[in-house]
Write a structure and sequence with these properties.
The protein is α+β, with helices and mostly antiparallel strands. The chain has 9 helices and 9 strands. The strands form 2 sheets. A 7-stranded antiparallel β-sheet has the order 1-6-5-4-3-9-2, sandwiched between helices. The longest helix is centred in the first third of the chain and has 13 residues.
C-alpha cells in the first residue's frame, strides 16, 4: 500500500488538478494559478524557455514558511540571504553549520532598525525591511521601490533584468485584498516571470495558508500600489543582489 501511495504522489507532482493543488492551504482565487498544477507547470516552462526563472533554482533550496503570522518579511529575507550564499551566522540549533534562520536574522544592527519583539507583533514596512537588509550591505546591494512612485512597466523591466541575472532577487510587499486573498499586507519573494502569460511566480512564505502561485503582473503591481497604514506610503518591491561575483558560506 505504501508503494502504491508513493507512486500516486509522484504522478501528482506538478500535475495536480486545480481543486487538489493543496490539501491544507486556502483555495486560491480563480485568477491566481497554483504552481503545482498543469497550468502552473506550463507557465513555469515558458518562463524557463524565455530565460526569466533564474531566482527559482536557488530560492527553492532555501524557501521556508514564516514561523509566525507577522514574520513574512523575515522569512522572505532569510530565503533570499540563504539563496545568495553570503556568509551566514551559526545558529545554535544548527551548529557548527552557518545558516540564516528567522531568529539569527535579528543581529544587533537589525534589532536597532526593527526590534524582533515588535516585528513579531506588527511585522515590517517596506522601509523598515530595506533598512534591516542594509545591515548586510558588506555582502549585498539592496534597494526599495514604492509602487506609488513607479509604474507597472518599471516593475516589469526590473524583474526581467533581475530574473535573467545570477544572484539577483526580488521581494514584493503587497496587500492580499487586491489579489482577492484573505489577509492584508504581506511580503514574499517572487521567483519567475512568464512574459507569454504576463504573470509572476509568488513563493508565498505563508505556506500554511496559500501555495506558491502565478499572478498577473498588473494585479501584483496594483496590490503593491496600496497604502501601508503603518508608514502612510505605498507598498512596493525590494531588489537584492550580491556585491560579489563569487559568494559562499563561511569556511568551517
Amino acid at each position: 500500500k505504501l508503494v502504491v501511495l508513493l507512486f500516486v504522489c509522484v504522478l501528482c507532482v506538478g500535475v495536480c488538478p486545480r481543486n487538489l493543488a493543496s490539501a491544507t492551504a486556502l483555495p486560491l482565487p480563480t485568477e491566481l494559478v497554483p504552481f503545482n498544477t498543469t497550468e502552473g507547470e506550463a507557465m513555469f516552462m515558458r518562463a524557463v524557455a524565455r530565460g526569466y526563472a533564474l531566482p527559482f533554482w536557488q530560492l527553492m533550496t532555501s524557501f521556508e514558511k514564516q514561523q509566525n503570522q507577522a514574520f513574512c518579511s523575515v522569512a522572505s529575507s532569510v530565503a533570499v540571504l540563504n539563496a545568495l550564499c553570503i556568509p551566514a551566522p551559526v545558529d545554535p540549533q544548527y551548529s557548527p553549520y552557518p545558516y540564516f534562520t528567522q531568529d539569527d536574522f535579528f543581529t544587533s544592527c537589525v534589532n536597532q532598525t526593527a526590534p524582533k519583539g515588535i516585528v513579531s507583533k506588527t511585522g515590517m514596512t517596506l522601509k523598515q525591511l530595506t533598512n534591516a537588509l542594509s545591515c548586510y550591505s558588506e555582502y549585498i546591494d539592496v534597494s526599495a521601490i514604492h509602487a506609488g512612485e513607479s509604474s507597472p512597466n518599471t516593475f516589469k523591466d526590473n524583474i526581467k533584468k533581475d530574473f535573467s541575472s545570477p544572484n539577483h532577487y526580488v521581494m514584493i510587499n503587497f496587500d492580499r485584498v487586491n489579489l482577492h486573498e484573505e489577509g492584508h499586507g504581506h511580503f514574499s519573494p517572487i521567483a519567475a516571470y512568464s512574459p507569454d502569460d504576463d504573470t509572476v511566480l509568488v513563493l508565498d512564505v505563508a505556506r500554511f495558508k496559500y501555495p506558491p502561485f502565478w499572478a498577473p503582473l498588473q494585479e501584483v503591481f496594483d496590490s503593491m500600489n496600496t497604502t501601508d497604514s503603518a508608514s502612510n506610503r505605498s507598498r512596493g518591491w525590494i531588489r537584492v543582489s550580491s556585491t560579489n561575483s563569487v559568494v559562499g558560506h563561511l569556511s568551517l
